[in-house]
Write a structure and sequence with these properties.
This protein is an alpha/beta fold. The protein has a single domain, classed as DNA polymerase III subunit chi (Rossmann fold). 30% of the residues lie in helices and 25% in strands. It is built from 3 helices and 7 strands, in the order βαβαββββαβ. The chain has a 7-stranded parallel sheet with strand order 3-4-2-5-6-1-7, with helices on both faces. The radius of gyration is 14 Å and the shape is globular. The mean pLDDT is 93.
Length: 141
């Protein structure tokens, strides 16, 4: 069953997303980032190019011919057929394909609307019997 982790009280969701992408990459995991807005993924794309002074995190779109070999895949597509290791959800709704993944990461910002959408996702997963973990980022302030 998919392990679901909520990272709460994030000052900047994309900064946390970039850090989680880096962590998954350093652990040798294949990570898919799912979002509803292309502009959000474009901003994350730029951040991943600047992750370290000497390089970037290898990433591409799901439609890219190299997607199967690339450790971080960013896309809006509401499906996923490739490797299913870690899914990072930046969408307001639960991803329709999250059950294929070993781990699902949810980032919750301090914004009231984002927190309410996250509460709905939390209730959705809990009602389906998934074990949920939360990690507060409040100490990162």
């Amino acid at each position: 069953m998919t392990e679901i982790l909520f990272y709460t009280d994030a000052a900047d969701r994309l900064e946390v997303a970039a850090r989680l992408c880096g962590k998954a990459y350093s652990q040798g995991r294949k990570l898919r980032v799912y979002a509803a807005e292309a502009a959000l993924l474009e901003r994350l794309d730029g951040m991943l190019w600047q992750m370290s002074p000497t390089g970037f995190l290898p990433h591409c779109s799901l439609r890219d011919p190299w997607a199967a070999e690339t450790p971080v895949v960013l896309d809006l597509a509401p499906e996923h057929q490739g490797p299913a290791d870690v899914l990072l959800n930046l969408h307001a709704e639960p991803p329709p394909f999250f059950g294929r993944f070993e781990r699902l990461l949810e980032i919750v910002s301090r914004d009231g609307g984002d927190r309410e959408a996250a509460r709905e996702r939390f209730r959705f997963y809990r009602a389906r019997g998934y074990a949920l973990q939360t990690h507060s980022l409040a100490e990162d302030r």
